[in-house]
Amino acid sequence: MKFPSFIVAFSLLQVILLMPGLCAEKTDSQARSVSYPSLGERHSKEYCAMYDICGQRSDGKVLNCPYGSPSVKPDELFSAKIQSLCPSISGNVCCTEDQFDTLRAQVQQAIPFLVGCPACLRNFLNLFCELSCSPNQSLFINVTSVSEVNGNLTVDGINFFVSDAFGEGLYDSCKEVKFGTMNTRAIEFIGAGATNFKEWFEFIGQKAPPGFPGSPYAIDFKPTVPDLSGMKPMNVSTYSCGDTSLGCSCGDCPSSPQCTNTEPPSPPKKDHCSITIGPVKVRCIDFALAIAYIVLVFGLSGWALFHRQRERILASEKEPLLKSIDEDQANSSNMQYDENLALEGRGVAAQLKNGAQLSIIQGYMSSFYRSYGMWVARNPTLVLCSSLAVVIVLCFGLIHIEVETRPEKLWVGHGSKAAEEKQFFDSHLAPFYRIEQLILATLPDNGKSPSIVSDDNIQLLFEIQEKVDGIRANYSGLTVSLTDICLKPLGQDCATQSVLQYFKMDRENFENYGGVTHAEYCFQHYTSSETCLSAFEAPLDPSTALGGFSGINYSEASAFVVTYPVNNAIDEAGNGNGKAVAWEKAFIQLVKEELLPLVQSRNLSLSFSSESSIEEELKRESTADIITIVVSYLVMFAYISITLGDAPRLSTFYISSKVLLGLSGVVLVMLSVLGSVGLFSAFGVKSTLIIMEVIPFLVLAVGVDNMCILVHAVKRQPLGLPLEERISNALVEVGPSITLASLAEILAFAVGGFTPMPACRVFSLFAALAVLLDFLLQVTAFVSLIVFDCLRAEDNRIDCFPCIKIPSSTEEPDEGMNSRGPGLLARYMQEIHAPFLGLWAVKVVVIAVFVAFALASIALSTRVESGLEQQIVLPRDSYVQGYFTNISEYLRIGPPLYFVVKNYNYSLESRDTNKLCSINQCDSNSLLNEISRASLVPESSFIAKPAASWLDDFLVWLSPEAFGCCRKFTNGSYCPPDDQPPCCSPDGGSCGFGGVCKDCTTCFRHSDLVNDRPSTEQFREKLPWFLNALPSADCAKGGHGAYTSSVDLSGYESGVIKASEFRTYHTPLNKQGDYVNALRAAREFSSRISDSLKMQIFPYSVFYIFFEQYLDIWRIALTNIAIALGAIFIVCLVITSSLWISAILVLVLVMIVVDLMGVMAILGIQLNAVSVVNLIMSIGIAVEFCVHIANAFLVSNGNRDQRMKEALSTIGASVFSGITLTKLVGVIVLFFSRSELFVVYYFQMYLALVLVGFLHGLVFLPVVLSLMGPPGRNVA
């Protein structure tokens, strides 16, 4: 988070009193306080209760004389000075010129906080003008005690009688006034956060101990005077903040009449459309889907009954014919049983020969595969060598391989609006600094974490800080320490955010200041007490250094949050932070090796992170799952070797096994991946860790399917045919479906290239090319390897050692490759699975169940949340995991939010200034006023507080009323406030109205300004003064530090500021949805304000660049899924020439995707670029479960039931063993991955895909085809 202020605000609540005197030499005199009932008894008009100065305290604060006296007529010059500050006082006065100078010197510290609201400032000044100089002072002031200083009696306590009407008017006019630099209300500084005027008066009236800010004597504010005293409460007229002559802005005065018509935005209604049925409340979509399902089930049941009755009638009419056919079938059953699969090849060949069963494209493909198969079988060596040569050439591109690990390059799309805004912000203002953070927390006790605020824990924090300060990292031979790289807004001290700042980061101050008691004091007075100011001279908001508290109960905090802001110097290549990165590595090493054991020994917890932690952990993750991936490959390889071979008897296993063929197939898969990476690397496309880990597994899972189908197709061919013919027939049989499936997969992967997230886009493109190369190698090199394997088996050579030949056995002439019989799985498909699905009752149940799950998944998919939890991306054992958990648990302030304004025209003729500012005379609908209103409804705007405004503070700094701020020497150069050098000696000497700054005057008089606004030339000249002005007690509005990087001064001389920012904060964001909604709300707010003001305004926060994709992730997902489905539909239509079968395939694929999204909702998997790519890829992978069954159905003869059964008998076993089981085996191994990303997005999603795809491909699709598949094509 960016820390708000870097300003100095010295005791700006109590010090306003006239009592704190001019800086003076300390005295060792002793003061003795006594009651004082007798003096000052006269209470009448034109009479004073205390007049002149009779002494000063040891800290230099002057003390008034307790003697009553008549009011005095000032000379003309003195009267003019009084009128300039106290226009309500005329004539005689009750103060000397020294007393008035004291008043003027002290109130000037408060003026910069209040001058933006003239009514509040006037009321505030009137309170102290009446107290100090009113000629009727004795009517409302009574001295109640005195003290003796150096032999003189001085005032030690008074009663100040002020009417409730004045008190309420003063408080009401000031309670909403903003102090922009600190993103808070001014009352926090000048009233300690008082909630009413009585609390404010009580705070002001406290007597401050020597050396502490505040009044040198007690002031007891009372609303009523004693009876018969002759006194009456001070009741000067107050000005409302909505007063037309002294009116304040809407941000400072929401109750102003001109502001009451603009209501703060109402929180959005989160209630979805719902219907109440008795005690149950049901969402409209769920109710509608339930009704649709009931109607569908009734319709399906009626349709089934109607068709069942119709089939019975048709069956009775054709019974004699069927009986004859059945007898013929029974006579040849044994022969068909033995030769079923073998004759299938001849049957297909016969069908393809007459061409009646195939479309034109299929006919061409069949002709091509027939000729190609014959050629490959005759020239296997040439095909194998040439195909491998091409891929190996592509692999040479690997010498240029580069791996991208920078998160912003992996997860942020090119042309991203957020990326463009970040680039604009970084180049025109300043890059957001790097964050190094420690969270030290207590351990829960009985479910509740005790407070961490104790002497021992603060001492421990000092010990930790000393170790951090002692870090010395090495960068290119240079020694790097924290002070070399830290952010230093004011001077040479780091802007470390830690409770140790209340002790100036000095351990010696811990005891001197009072230990933990001082820290607890500073929690409430961090803006007002000089001793609470940080070492870098700025107030430290305790909410940035503490965690785990509720409200403002800082003492209950259960965590210390220590943040080290480090300068960020990013160039286009992502370099420039070498020193910082070197220090961060040393910092993490120190925490792990020394700080963590130290903290744990004190029964505390410590979580930590650096700016480079995520990138380093991602690199480590690249090696974390190597074993898992290797095991996955080995398991799949073992399964492939088993499933490709057939060993009826153990004695021939060494010949009939396919271990060498399976291994060769795995090598081809790896070559296809390497070729893909090599080609892209040659063109300068960087790889990612996910490519190197997932794509080989993915392509292996996809490639194994086709290998199994090809081998099984060859094994189904009649053994009596020559090898060339068997290879040719096998390619003719499965080539078109393999081609169709591979094209669908390639298209589905390629569609993933439209995803804006670079990591996922590159992954999709690499995978698409890898699948294409794998397909080409399968139909070239792998077919050649099948030829070699068949020759090896026929020649009785051992599988893994083909050079060794075994003599043929005369006893078992039909073993090995010469033995053909239906396997167990094939028999199950033919004899159990297919007949079972042919039952009408089963069909109805299948349709009902699958449709029910699809409709339920539609309802569930609306509950899928967008986002990608950071914990999932990192290894499970990463130290950053605990850090993210503690961030959500302990932090009470959200990320900084900047509203960036482009091309602000500050010329006097332009209205841009009033469109932006929030002080008096600004537009009620100005940017800063609207931000202030939005902060009133943080639950919908996600804006926590009003914005810090350099523009408001600059205009106030320029104001003649802020006479301690914008000042100039007689030669026209800048004159700093009186408490800064050269007006004050740098060595700490005395400050006063004399010396080199005695002739300094305010930059402007009211007559020099136009409606209190500077001219274009005045604005241009004084803006650099303001941005370089150091804040101090005399002028807390100096812009140096707080606004150093808030304005881009390049080219501002033309009257246009190219870029400037107004800073506020988001509310605490704990979930991914909070980040997305915060970005959406900020974008909507900026868009509305930009349209209203006709100015270019955009919001910026450091996390926007990573969460922008989720604003329209649903649109991206649905669009890409639709494109992928459309592409597959077109491919199917072109190849099959069947609109009917293409539509059924797309319907099943849609159901698979919908069901997968339903599973995502059940498992809590979020929608992000990774899951979107998975959904798109699932379409391509799901095609394999369906396309082979659909193609076999399309080329079969008979009615729908017979064709469905024939398709399952022919190809069902290959789909189950070669597609389902191979994927299942490889996916299950991913469960043991150390990466949560693998487990959630690859194990869980792919496992769901395999199961859902298998059920749809081998259960639902056959039933649908048997009910409404395309009619068979007549064989000529």
Automatic annotation (TrEMBL):
<keyword id="KW-0813">Transport</keyword>
<keyword id="KW-0732">Signal</keyword>
<protein>
    <recommendedName>
        <fullName>SSD domain-containing protein</fullName>
    </recommendedName>
</protein>
<feature type="transmembrane region" description="Helical">
    <location>
        <begin position="1143"/>
        <end position="1165"/>
    </location>
</feature>
<keyword id="KW-0443">Lipid metabolism</keyword>
<feature type="transmembrane region" description="Helical">
    <location>
        <begin position="1245"/>
        <end position="1268"/>
    </location>
</feature>
<feature type="transmembrane region" description="Helical">
    <location>
        <begin position="381"/>
        <end position="401"/>
    </location>
</feature>
<feature type="transmembrane region" description="Helical">
    <location>
        <begin position="730"/>
        <end position="751"/>
    </location>
</feature>
<feature type="transmembrane region" description="Helical">
    <location>
        <begin position="689"/>
        <end position="709"/>
    </location>
</feature>
<keyword id="KW-0153">Cholesterol metabolism</keyword>
<feature type="transmembrane region" description="Helical">
    <location>
        <begin position="763"/>
        <end position="788"/>
    </location>
</feature>
<dbReference type="InterPro" id="IPR000731">
    <property type="entry name" value="SSD"/>
</dbReference>
<keyword id="KW-1207">Sterol metabolism</keyword>
<feature type="transmembrane region" description="Helical">
    <location>
        <begin position="659"/>
        <end position="683"/>
    </location>
</feature>
<dbReference type="Pfam" id="PF16414">
    <property type="entry name" value="NPC1_N"/>
</dbReference>
<dbReference type="InterPro" id="IPR053956">
    <property type="entry name" value="NPC1_MLD"/>
</dbReference>
<dbReference type="Pfam" id="PF22314">
    <property type="entry name" value="NPC1_MLD"/>
</dbReference>
<keyword id="KW-0325">Glycoprotein</keyword>
<feature type="transmembrane region" description="Helical">
    <location>
        <begin position="1207"/>
        <end position="1233"/>
    </location>
</feature>
<dbReference type="InterPro" id="IPR032190">
    <property type="entry name" value="NPC1_N"/>
</dbReference>
<keyword id="KW-1015">Disulfide bond</keyword>
<feature type="transmembrane region" description="Helical">
    <location>
        <begin position="287"/>
        <end position="306"/>
    </location>
</feature>
<feature type="transmembrane region" description="Helical">
    <location>
        <begin position="1171"/>
        <end position="1195"/>
    </location>
</feature>
<keyword id="KW-0812">Transmembrane</keyword>
<comment type="similarity">
    <text>Belongs to the patched family.</text>
</comment>
<dbReference type="InterPro" id="IPR004765">
    <property type="entry name" value="NPC1-like"/>
</dbReference>
<keyword id="KW-0753">Steroid metabolism</keyword>
<feature type="domain" description="SSD">
    <location>
        <begin position="625"/>
        <end position="788"/>
    </location>
</feature>
<feature type="signal peptide">
    <location>
        <begin position="1"/>
        <end position="24"/>
    </location>
</feature>
<dbReference type="InterPro" id="IPR053958">
    <property type="entry name" value="HMGCR/SNAP/NPC1-like_SSD"/>
</dbReference>
<keyword id="KW-1133">Transmembrane helix</keyword>
<feature type="transmembrane region" description="Helical">
    <location>
        <begin position="626"/>
        <end position="647"/>
    </location>
</feature>
<feature type="transmembrane region" description="Helical">
    <location>
        <begin position="837"/>
        <end position="860"/>
    </location>
</feature>
<dbReference type="Pfam" id="PF12349">
    <property type="entry name" value="Sterol-sensing"/>
</dbReference>
<feature type="transmembrane region" description="Helical">
    <location>
        <begin position="1113"/>
        <end position="1136"/>
    </location>
</feature>
<keyword id="KW-0472">Membrane</keyword>
